[in-house]
C-alpha cells in the first residue's frame, strides 16, 4: 500500500476530519434546537453505527487503493446519497432499505479487508448504489423544517466521515491493520443485518 498525497495534505485532512467529528457533540447541549436544521442533518449520519461504518469505509477503501478513487468514490457516494435523500423526503419508497444499508457495511468491510483494487468506475458505481439507500434513510427520517439545510448537514457529516476514512487509511498504511478494520466492519454489518 502506498500513501496517497503529500505529508502536509495528510495532516490537513486529518486535522479537518478530527475537528468535524469532535465538534458535533457540542450540538447535543440542552437548549439548542436541532429540529429540521443543518445541525440535525449533521448529527443524523453520526447517530447510527451503520452510517458511520459505511461512510468511513468508503474513505478508507478509497485511501488504501489510491489514485483518483480518493476523490471519485466519496464524490459518487455523496451525489447518490443526495438523490436517495430526495427520494426519501418525497415519499418514494424503496425496498429493504435497512437490510441493504447493513449489507453495504458488509460489502464495504469486505472490500477494505481484501484491499480490493477495483477500477474507478466500478467502485464509484458500487458506492453510489449503496449511497442511495443511506440517503433514502436520511430523507425519510428528516424532521420538519427546512429540508435543504437538513440535507446540507448530512452531506457535510458524510464528507467528514469520508475524510476520516481517508485519514485512517493514511495513518494505518500497513496492510494487516487495514484488513483488521475491514474485517471488523464486515462483522458489524452481519450483526446489523441479523437485528
Kindly describe this structure.
The chain has 195 residues and is mainly α. It is 74% helix and 0% strand. The chain has helices at 7-23, 38-43, 49-65, 69-89, 97-113, 120-140, 147-172, 175-194. The radius of gyration is 16 Å and the shape is globular. It starts with 6 loop residues before the first helix and ends with a helix. The relative contact order is 0.23. The model is unreliable at 2-6 and 15-34 (pLDDT under 50).
Quick synopsis:
With about 200 residues, the chain is mainly alpha-helical. Helices cover about 75% and strands about 0% of the residues. The protein has helices spanning about 5-25, 40-45, 50-65, 70-90, 95-115, 120-140, 145-170, 175-195.
Amino acid at each position: 500500500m502506498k500513501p496517497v498525497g503529500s505529508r502536509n495534505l495528510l495532516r490537513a485532512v486529518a486535522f479537518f476530519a478530527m475537528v468535524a467529528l469532535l465538534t458535533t457533540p457540542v450540538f447535543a447541549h440542552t437548549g439548542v434546537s436541532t429540529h429540521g436544521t443543518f445541525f440535525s442533518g449533521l448529527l443524523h449520519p453520526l447517530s447510527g453505527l451503520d452510517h458511520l461504518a459505511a461512510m468511513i469505509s468508503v474513505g478508507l477503501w478509497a485511501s488504501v487503493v489510491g489514485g483518483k478513487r480518493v476523490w471519485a468514490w466519496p464524490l459518487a457516494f455523496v451525489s447518490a446519497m443526495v438523490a436517495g435523500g430526495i427520494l426519501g423526503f418525497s415519499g418514494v419508497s424503496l425496498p429493504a432499505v435497512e437490510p441493504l444499508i447493513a449489507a453495504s457495511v458488509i460489502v464495504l468491510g469486505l472490500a477494505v479487508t481484501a484491499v480490493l483494487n477495483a477500477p474507478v468506475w466500478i467502485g464509484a458505481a458500487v458506492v453510489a448504489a449503496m449511497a442511495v439507500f443511506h440517503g433514502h434513510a436520511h430523507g425519510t427520517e428528516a424532521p420538519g423544517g427546512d429540508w435543504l439545510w437538513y440535507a446540507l448537514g448530512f452531506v457535510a457529516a458524510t464528507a467528514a466521515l469520508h475524510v476520516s476514512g481517508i485519514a485512517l487509511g493514511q495513518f494505518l498504511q500497513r496492510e494487516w491493520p487495514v484488513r483488521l478494520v475491514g474485517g471488523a466492519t464486515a462483522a458489524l454489518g452481519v450483526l446489523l443485518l441479523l437485528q
